[in-house]
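Please go through the protein record below and explain what the tokens say about the fold. Record follows.
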Amino acid sequence: MAAVEDVDGDGDLDLVVHFKVKDTGLAPGDTEATLTGETFDGISIEGTDSVRTVPPTK
């Protein structure tokens, strides 16, 4: 799931993406993650930011 919203109140739209933790390589309690990818033009991209893992809902 993904959404675009201003989550930090700075007026810029932020991309909010939800992943299942088990599919990411993150461990519960991790505080930073790096996302890598490639644009449609073949340009490599990478970004690192803080993350908050949450326990699954019952």
